[in-house]
Amino acid sequence: MEIRTASSPRDVKHYTTERLREEFLIQNLFVGGEIKLVYSHIDRIITGAAVPTDKPLVLTAGEELRADYFLQRREMGIINVGGKGTITVDGRAYTLDYKDGMYIGMGQKDISFASEDATNPAKFYLNSAPAHTTYPTVLIKMDGEKEEGVVIIKDENKVELGTLEESNHRVINKYILPGQVESCQLVMGMTALKPGSVWNTMPCHTHDRRMEVYLYFEMPEDAFVMHYMGEPTQTRHIVMRNEEAVISPSWSIHAGSGSRAYTFIWGMVGENQVFTDMDAVDNKDLR
């Protein structure tokens, strides 16, 4: 597990391109046959991915957590961005198709990941946060029939925003949040831009009460996103490619413009789960 420490906004404004990428960009997450994890001191979030191929992958705590098992004092959200796969939680198997998600509550001990087809493996992207109580483990789907242990994303949590004229026509799909899938502090979802739109989260904002991690995907090899971060009057950018993630501290804006439309997963951790709790930044005030 890679460890990342927190950075002060006073220092970040002096970072070179290389240092900025070293601190905040997460690359090479999806490696066949491996579980890759990055632990950030910012709200103690863990960002990672499991890509099982010819055999299941077992999630363990590792020495870094000083825990008997990974979710002894944590909760976890997962979204599959690859082929069909299975997550087994304490003996119960859950099947995830492309863009299906899961919430796994604190206290679940034995967690493993498997792919249906090793040549088209599942790509399980995960965010994990410290937890103080246990909430039910659920499978999350955008559509389908509701059944035991399965949550279908409610219509009010599929939000269409923006316009093509403003280049930000997009659909926000909220997976983990109060009223749909309960958690201690983790809020998680996915936003898909419509063809012809390239801007996400614009006008931009900050939220001092929680940090955020973005994963950009559904981009061809030659495409990129200019991810904007930093204080509103001290903005910086990171060039990001397909299936790369970026850590956004609570004091930083988090927005992007792509060379074409793309999709991104957002995961938030902190003391407030209210989705609309944000401090808006007027476009004219950006520097």
UniProtKB/TrEMBL annotation:
Entry keyword set: Isomerase, Metal-binding, Zinc
Record carries keyword Metal-binding: yes
Q: Which InterPro entries match?
A: KduI, KduI/IolB_isomerase, KduI_N, RmlC-like_jellyroll, RmlC_Cupin_sf
Which pathway does the protein contribute to? Answer: Glycan metabolism; pectin degradation; 2-dehydro-3-deoxy-D-gluconate from pectin: step 4/5
Top enzyme class, one word, equals isomerase
Tell me which EC number(s) this protein carries.
5.3.1.17
In the record's cofactor note, how is the cofactor described as bound? Answer: Binds 1 zinc ion per subunit.
Q: Where does Zn(2+) bind?
A: H205, H207, E212, H254
Is the Isomerase keyword given for this protein? yes
Pfam families, per this entry?
KduI
* Alphabetical GO biological process terms: D-galacturonate catabolic process; D-glucuronate catabolic process; pectin catabolic process
Query: What molecular functions are annotated in GO for this chain?
Result: 4-deoxy-L-threo-5-hexosulose-uronate ketol-isomerase activity; zinc ion binding
* Reactions performed catalytically: 5-dehydro-4-deoxy-D-glucuronate = 3-deoxy-D-glycero-2,5-hexodiulosonate
Q: What cofactor(s) does the depicted protein rely on?
A: Zn(2+)
Protein function: Catalyzes the isomerization of 5-dehydro-4-deoxy-D-glucuronate to 3-deoxy-D-glycero-2,5-hexodiulosonate.
Family the entry assigns: Belongs to the KduI family.
Protein name per UniProt:
4-deoxy-L-threo-5-hexosulose-uronate ketol-isomerase
Q: Which organism is it from?
A: Holtiella tumoricola
Gene for this protein?
kduI
